[in-house]
Write a structure and sequence with these properties.
This protein has 434 residues and is α+β, with helices and mostly antiparallel strands. Helix content is 31%, strand content 26%.
Length: 434
Amino acid sequence: MAAKYLSIQEAMDKGSGKVSVRGWVHRERGSNKLKFVSLRDSTNVIQCVLKREDFEKQWEDIDHLQVETSLLINGEIKKDERAPTGYEIRVIEFKVVGKSENYPITKDHSPEFLADNRHLWLRSRRMISILKIRSTVFGAIHEYFRNEGFYEYHSPIFQSVQCEGGSTLFEVPYFGKRKEVFLGQTWQLYAEPAIFALEKIYTISPSFRAEKSKTSRHLTEYWHAEMEVAWADFKEIMDYGEGLIKFVVQKVLEKNKEELKLLERDLKKLEPIVKKPFIRMTYDEALKILKDKCKMPVTWGKDLRTIEEEKLTKLYDVPLIVSHYPKVVKAFYMTEDPKNPDVVQGCDFLAPEGYGEIIGGSHREPELEEIKKRLKEQGEDPKEYEFYLDTRRYGSVPHGGFGLGVERIITWICGLDNIKDSIPFPRTMERYRP
């Protein structure tokens, strides 16, 4: 069957005439005289019709075609409104490439069964749609930062110090070394030294958090889009975050309308993200809104929990940027607000519809002695951070950055119930395989 193969979408775009396509059996039905095979590839699904009178000698093979058998097909395509995707191919010639027998995934399986068979569930049209959107999101992040003059920069995954809290560190053995070595929670402590060379940097890299959480919003291994920029003030950091989210959502709306449709995502809930400015409020203002509009009082000094973020974000149709959190609930490297030393120039971006935090960012503390003091307050030995402290000793400048949880923004854009569906092979407290 020597032929130039088109993707199914290319064949549908051609619309008529002879075509050669290849893919996997998505569905099959028919009688002893006529067989309808829905063929799937990465681009679409098309109905293929095989008549017994054309394949008398091969009918036994055709009659036993099962889901996920891989096929090569030559035939004539035509428009047919009765077909599931509007076109069908009358098959002239076919070849089985790889047999499939008793494919284990059918209908109405439990989430646990689908997780155990994740390597096969990736073939579902739902997962294909999510993975395509995921690819668009990654590409858009790269495009946004490069358009803004940022350099891509990489930090080590094996790290000798913690940044986001010792309770969520994965400790790993490292050639018998006595010192502890961890999987990176963030690139930040190794990124800040590079801004004195490149000034504007970003990365997309795996991060690891040993959070003992079984919620629908947490993964132990996730992809982290982070940026760091020299000479920036706090407002610029928030502006970059808003610009990035708008750019990513716009790209998905441009490229993935069909995938969003298959996921039954309401586009009207995404369109305001591109068109309207985000809502900006301080932590104090957020607490007042929670008390007055949601009847949910929060004691000053406590971080916002998932339930409070959910209530707050359901009041708006665009993301919220909540800033100036109490210093006691934020990391040691955040700059104190010059007007109020009890709060820091840190912010969280909260996605609407109850999806919660997708970005955390801040202006970085410039004073060497202040960083040492906060490290000691958190039980850390400043001597272990000498490489980081050197950034404040030699030509320090105002700077800041943020981290975006890529799976979180994918979960929100796709309207998913669980973050585990936003990544090919999720890793959680209870699952590390397949």
